[in-house]
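REQUEST FORM: STRUCTURE PREDICTION
Request ID: SP-0412
Submitted by: Lab K.M.
Chain count: 1
Length (residues): 335
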Amino acid sequence: MAGTRFTRDQLTLVALKNMPIVLLVTVFVAFSLLDHRFFDAQTLVNIARQASYVGILAVGMTFVLLTAGIDLSVGAVAYLSAVLVSELLKETPLPLFALPVLMAGIGLLAGLVNGALISFARITPFIVTLAAMGLYRGYALGESQSREANFPAGITDLGNLGIFGVPLPIVIFALVVIVAQVVLSKTAYGRQLYAVGQDPEAATRAGIPTRRIIVSVYVIGGVLAGLAAFVSVIQMGTIVPSFGTGDEFDAIAAAVLGGASLFGGRGTVFPGTVAGTLLVQMIAVGMVFTQVDLYLTPMISAAVIFAAVLLDTARTRQLAKISKRSIRVEIPVPV
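STATUS: Completed
RESULT:
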């Protein structure tokens, strides 16, 4: 009986760990059956291209969630980065390669402020980043006078540039994913990050610099928010005042649907966050293909976020139950 239960638990674990892939395939098949155009290769490329912006935000959010934190300011940081660089370009001509560096640098400073207040001032992440969201967006709106932030005409040529046939936004997203996954899975920093998320007090007693780790994840989130802004700029060429509004929730949904826990200590960038990002974007594109009422779109997006939270809660409880049963199975029985 114990062996049967253990086998069932193993199957459940496999299903839970691969839930993002299962959901992604299910949604893809469903929309393909509703509209055959959805199965086209170009549609998949467009989904990946459009997902690159939110995907980069979601990778940064994954780092934050691993520490049981949250960052509600990433959309505002992306907007701030784009606006400040746009204003700088009015005064000083800059080479195109400097734009992502500057945007990422602005994001770094914003993330450093957030992380320092959370880690050293001991203010709740929700409060800090909620206040930061209003502060950064308000400052950016003041700098731009609530007008569109325009960029040189040649900037969109980068968005259309292909490397071995792959659009540049997808290439940037892929590079971010590769680096992030290597950092989390192959480095001491990655192991420390998971340890802090699972039990910060135990991590501190083990000699892990918990405060610096927490600051670092908000810095990473800020840097990737600035880089995400660059990816969006090269595709659109201009940034409207509403840019980034609500994108933090899409990033959270993508990370959680991909297996990251809101309670910290669990999650992967690949395939987790990548699958979650593609799932969120696939649903958005699928609603366009199936001509869902425009007014229903925000409601469906909200339902996706709600489902992500429910899935995370159920997954956490189930994993806890399986873990307890496994411990009981491994305890030797006295003869």
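NOTES: Confidence is low (pLDDT under 50) at residues 329-335.
Reviewed by: T.R.
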